Amino acid sequence: MAAEVTQLLEGRDLVVDMTLGAGGHAAALLEAGVHEVIGVDRDPEALRLAGARLAGYGERVRLVHARFSEVDEDAVGEEVGGVLFDLGVSSMQLDRPERGFSFRADGPLDMRMDAEGPSAADLVNGLPERELADLIFRLGEEPRSRKIAAAIVRRRPIRTTDELAGIVVSAVGKRPGGPHPARRTFQALRLAVNRELEELTAALPHAAGLLGPGGRVVVLSYHSLEDRTVKWSFRDDDRLLVLTKKPLVPGAAERAANPRARSAKLRAAERIGDAA
CA-to-CA distance for 30 and 37, rounded, in angstroms? Predict the structure, then answer.
């Protein structure tokens, strides 16, 4: 949904891209007349790749290695015209099996975005069965979580993505032509490993605080837990005017061209001017 993001943020003096990734949104914003972008990412590899991609923009780009919950007024030092979040795992991370994010390619069961803290393997092999089932149910919205957790515990230790995906398939089956049965389990583990919902909950009020009057915060989310968090945060923040009563979604052409975008939802809000 690059066109929608650009339309909402084009021409602004300073935008903070809280999830820089490979730098695609940052480049589009700079081409659309944004004067300067601060690109934030917790993944050092993403910063390295994005830095190379954006090098031609010179001093119009600043790169920051941080979790987005750490980026507040003190960290930025000035009011900004826009803040962008493109949540979830990036294509760059999914396409590298050694990062352990994908159930479609074999790799170590890691899923950490910044190589800190426990990995997915630590959770899978260390949590009691009930806690593991609760995690998969709560963060993956997986109704078969107890059956999956029991199968995991029986087969521990589990070290690779392929092992885990196979165990989930053996526990719940696989419908021909349907989505992969391990997708919700992998989502739950990734969210837990990286504390993504906690990060988002902490970061959204900070983002509103960064904005000058008329500044906008734009969030792309990819599943209902993220989207609800954004919806409620915007609704409950009296500094913000919600611009999207219902989330924007990709059109048919974009869904066909980029299947990973099919679940995207975009919400935006604008900072209200302080009362005189």
Answer: 7
Give the model's pLDDT for residue 191: 95
Let me know: does 145 contact 136? Beta carbons within 8 Å. yes
At position 206, the amino acid (one-letter code) is H
Sheet holding 265-271, edge to edge: 61-65, 36-41, 14-17, 80-86, 211-221, 265-271, 240-242
pTM, rounded to two decimals:
0.91
Q: Return mean pLDDT, the chain.
A: 92
Q: Taking every pair of C-alpha atoms in the chain, what is the biggest distance, in angstroms?
A: 64
Q: Judge contact between 266 and 219, C-beta under 8 A.
A: yes
Residue 23 burial by CB count (10 A; 0-12/13-18/19+): exposed, middle or buried? buried
| pLDDT value, residue 225 | 94
Token pair of 230, please?
Answer: 């954004």
